[in-house]
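Q: How would the structure tokens look for this protein?
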Amino acid sequence: MNDDLPEAAPDTEHAKEDRTPDFKPQSLSLSFIIALALVGILVLLILFENIPGIRASVGVSMTQSPWILQSYVNTTGTLVPVESGSPITAIFGSDARVSGSAGCNYYNANYTVRDFTISVSPSVSTKIFCSDTNVMQQESAYLNDLVRAEELRISESSLRFYDGSGKPILVFVKG
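A: Here is the predicted structure in token form.
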């Protein structure tokens, strides 16, 4: 062979075809569909997390029905059930006022809700004396817990208030 002769240039069209990977329409479309579905789920999660109307609806949901206290934090810091025969109620009005029975006395207070936080002002209540000291202690603890509430969570059947450390302090059920 003659080393002085230049090598023939490869046919460029055939070279491009040889370097092109095999195209598999079914595997590409399945991968594409899976990737698209995952991106769609991610977009939905981001949207639902950031829609202010969803968070605002927590406050609106509270006003849709009266609530009956199921448990509260007593003076020792323990979540305990409400004494039987002394229902404690809360009605959250659209006018940003909460009112109800604290067991013996009726109360009302102002409240604000933003996202999942709540702030309740000290309440004004009647001054009826109850002969049952346990009910009076329960009433006092409830009204104190109501003011200490900082966070809330609501579901179909319950409303829960939490203190600043995330500890549950009031648990209501729909009335």
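The longest strand covers residues 106-114.

Confidence is low (pLDDT under 50) at residues 52-56.

Upvote if useful.
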